[in-house]
Amino acid sequence: MPNRKYKIAVIQLNLNDVAENNLKKCISWVKDAAAKGAEVILLPELYSSHYFCQSEDVDNFALAEPLYSTSFIAFSALAKELGVVIIVPFFEKRMAGIYHNSAYIIDTDGTEAGLYRKMHIPDDPHFYEKFYFTPGDLGFKAIETKKGKVGTLICWDQWYPEAARITALKGAEVLFYPTAIGWHPKEKEQYGENQYGAWMNVMKGHAVANGVFVAAANRIGLEKYIEGTEGIQFWGASFIAGPQGEILAQASHDQEEILIAEVDLDLQENVRQNWPFFRDRRIDFFGDITKRAID
């Protein structure tokens, strides 16, 4: 029988360091989360380095790693040691000239339960991800693990209700969003509250519309490494929401933290029985959603 209740954790960190140090830091924090009872643990997007997409620089491709190398070896051993599921977002080198923004879902025995490649790739000022990442080609997935059935989407994916819907329809009980999002310092005063609010609201909306738990793990800290720029102030505020959008755990904007909450599948089923959005979907009239524009 599947687990009807299990605990999930999101880890919020400052990752403005070199790969070796970030790996050691994340291993330590995952151990702390497991010691606190977490059974499925999420790290922030591109955990192993600073957020290098602030510029278009071919030297940054050296930060990528082939599948099943450094990150997988380390976290596979850790997952097996701790008996937990770990979601590990990393910069994947698929082959020369093809790179992805990806995440391993590593099961409790250290095996790969699944691999996700970020589907939606942004190109905004200081978020120049299209220069680095090929769009994902594995589709949206619900991954069966020994703790539960989970879906992993990555950062920019969080703005797309279609991604959340498909992942939930495939049976995901939790939507996990490893994230790297922040303010441009010069814009924070004027736009910051609305930007952060929109980020929270859209994911809470995914929870409500799909009757799922949602967990987002963000970075914190000012990452300013390009001369003549103000950098990005990552706003933290990682959170876990329940299937009615209720906040179960919320992090600060500027502290490294572990958030833990319980996934209760009986609660999820009750919510879906009372708010039967899946039942009432008019799929016979949804064909136009696959068009770029309806014109």
Automatic annotation (TrEMBL):
GO molecular function: acyltransferase activity; N-carbamoylputrescine amidase activity
PROSITE patterns: CN_HYDROLASE
InterPro entries according to UniProt: Aliph_Amidase/BUP, C-N_Hydrolase, C-N_Hydrolase_sf
The entry's keywords: Acyltransferase, Hydrolase, Transferase
GO biological process: putrescine biosynthetic process from arginine
Superkingdom: Bacteria
Gene3D superfamilies assigned to the protein according to its UniProt record, in alphabetical order: Carbon-nitrogen hydrolase
CN hydrolase domain: residues covered: 6-265
Record protein name field: Acyltransferase
CDD domains: CPA
Species this chain originates from: Flavobacterium hydrocarbonoxydans
SUPFAM superfamilies in the cross-refs: Carbon-nitrogen hydrolase (SSF56317)
